[in-house]
Design a protein that fits this description.
By secondary structure, this protein is of the alpha+beta class. It contains seven helices and four strands. A hairpin with a 2-residue loop joins strand 2 (135-140) and strand 3 (143-149). It is elongated and about 95 Å long.
Length: 234
């Protein structure tokens, strides 16, 4: 709870105490004047509660809009940038970057609503796999970012990769649109990176290398399965 919310809470408590105090005095002293004061105070308190509650809802909505992705409900790119700005050396960080495979094919075949379901399903699995030791966000489009900061960052990223695999396998057993993804990760202690953004770029390159390897394997498998062309006899 921030300072603004503390102030609102204190003012509300003081209003309630004042209304109760004047009401008790009005009853015990049979005072018409204090009764009117108590009634006016009560009306003012109700009005104040309504306006401050509306302000709190507006503040919460603006906060959600600014820092959370509207489609998936997980933190967005701005939240990730703020998290990175609060961290120190990349030596104490591990990064994972993931990208969905075949999203365009799903959009073209089943429509963008199906693609949105695919993104949401992966986002939830990605976020839950990173918790509670890591920070996960939708980095934009169908790319996702997980950050693990601290002395145990290597262990946490390894646990994350295992949990993510398990969650995606569980999702694909029941989902109409199976999730396929490519992922790359990098650890600050293993990379020659002077900043965290450089470390993220390194993980991003590893992710694209993974995606490229998958495409090459798929292309090679299709070539192997393809029947040889008919040859004309001379």
């Amino acid at each position: 709870m921030d300072k603004h919310k503390y102030i609102i809470l204190i003012v509300k408590i003081l209003n309630i105490l004042f209304v109760v105090f004047t009401g008790v005095i009005a009853v015990t002293q049979s005072s018409y004047f204090l009764g009117c004061v108590s009634l006016v105070s009560l009306l003012f308190a109700l009005f104040y509660f309504y306006t401050t509650s509306q302000q709190a809802r507006d503040y919460h909505l603006l906060y959600r809009t600014a820092y959370f992705d509207s489609l998936t409900g997980i933190p967005n790119r701005l939240s990730a940038d703020l998290y990175v700005s609060r961290c120190g050396s990349p030596d104490n960080m591990a990064v994972a970057v993931a990208d969905l495979d075949g999203l365009k094919a799903v959009n073209d075949t089943y429509g963008h609503a199906a693609g949105d379901i695919l993104i949401r399903n992966f986002a939830i699995a990605f976020f839950d796999a990173a918790a509670p030791f890591g920070f996960a966000a939708r980095n934009g489009g169908d790319e996702f970012l997980a950050l693990f900061y601290g002395p145990d960052h290597t262990k946490h990223v390894n646990d994350f990769l295992q949990r993510l695999t398990e969650k995606i396998e569980a999702n694909n057993r029941s989902s109409k649109y199976p999730v396929q993804y490519s992922i790359g990760f990098a650890s600050g202690e293993d990379q020659n990176c002077s900043t965290i953004p450089e470390l993220i770029s390194c993980a991003d390159r590893h992710m694209y290398h993974c995606k490229k390897s998958k495409k090459e394997k798929t292309s090679s498998a299709e070539t192997t399965k393809r029947p040889p062309a008919d040859r004309k006899e001379s």
